[in-house]
């Protein structure tokens, strides 16, 4: 052997003792990069069809039924391999595959969320000013308000008319559809932002039209024209906005980013980038050892409150119901259960390095991020995973050749955030956050790595199957 190629004692010791996180491409099995790229084509389709929590649940339920999932019946009996789902008001969904072992050994839970930051219409949204028609909005989740101006927007949601009929709205996604927009002030006139605020939440109003109804003279004729168009299309009147849920989201399609097409740019990666791999993992687990419970939930971006968020008891009640089918007590099953809280983390951005502790930051293309705790300041408002469970997960991922890393959400006292982990942990379940690193999180156009998306699928699948 050439002496120049021999490793020194220090180099050998470093290999043994140092922790290294390599680019996932270096650790992929033969053909796995191509497999990851193909997997992400399905993910992009999911993103384009699931821009709201209602759409994500409906789309997933349709896929699940094709995979043999049936509505859960608490009075039925189930055997290993049986597949059921529970639909919580069309905004949250649980997929369950019964395992070969009794539920006495607990369930394997993977919980993600399918709501994303957006602009919601107010209950009385429509007004006219200076012969322009606009919608008033109330932003949902944490956003940088200026990012939502001067971009094409689509309108999604449902309207319940006074006669009880529900109409579905989806305008702005198809070729030829009109788009909508929050206008912005030109730089020539915007030289002194007040109080350092670029745009106020109350000013996130959406431009929807400018032509008056007919040739008659009068007030609010542009508003009248818009209402007439909506009445002809949906049969609604202005009063029906009170019983509507209408959301404005970016009218972008999911696209490849970069000359090498290694990245995906899209609205809604947080947290559909974890939801889709968890759903696909649930479909792949045809006969798991432990019963798998895959949750896609609502309301995470606003604190998980409400009866479709994980602050409510719907997951607890579902586990109690499946436990009862085996003559077991729900709380005993919960105590024995484990959970991956499948949520994203901030990817390290070399343009903005100062907000991260680089030793404890997550990087694109280094696999899924195991986040021991989130919270803010002195770890407030977080689950903090136990060392025993961290050890179990790292051993599991290493054994399944899953590229993974650890990460925090920014520097101490500067960063912070929350996931659903603490709500599941509060039930008595062992939980740790595991998800995909994201650039430009909460922006209308976020970035993820295809390899990281695929590693999320591999990780969730390994967790469910072991």
The percentage of residues in β strands lies in 15-25%
What is the tally of helical segments?
11
Query: Mean of residue pLDDT?
Result: 95
For the largest beta-sheet, the strand count, sense and barrel status come to:
9 strands, mixed
Q: What is the number of independent domains? A: 2
Helix content: 25-40%
- Low-confidence parts: none
Shape: globular
Second CATH tier, the architecture of the largest domain = 3-Layer(aba) Sandwich
* CATH top level label of the largest domain: Alpha Beta
CATH superfamily membership of the largest domain: Zn peptidases
Topology of this protein?
Blueprint: H1 9-17, H2 24-27, H3 32-49, H4 53-66, E1 70-71, E2 83-88, E3 92-97, E4 107-113, E5 118-129, E6 132-140, E7 153-160, E8 166-171, E9 181-182, E10 206-209, H5 221-234, E11 244-250, E12 255-257, E13 263-266, H6 269-284, E14 291-297, H7 314-324, H8 330-335, E15 338-341, E16 345-346, E17 368-371, E18 375-376, H9 387-399, E19 404-406, E20 416-417, H10 421-425, E21 430-435, E22 437-438, E23 446-449, H11 450-465
How would you describe this protein?
- By secondary structure, the chain is α/β, with parallel strands linked by helices.
- The chain folds into two domains: 17-116 and 267-465, Zn peptidases (Aminopeptidase), CATH 3.40.630.10; 119-250, Aminopeptidase i, Domain 2 (Roll).
- It has eleven helices and 23 strands.
- The strands form five sheets. It has a nine-stranded mixed β-sheet, sandwiched between helices. Strands 8-7-11-5-6-10-9 form a seven-stranded antiparallel β-sheet, with helices on one face.
- The radius of gyration is 24 Å and the shape is globular.
- 42% of the residues are buried.
- The model has no long low-confidence stretch (mean pLDDT 95).
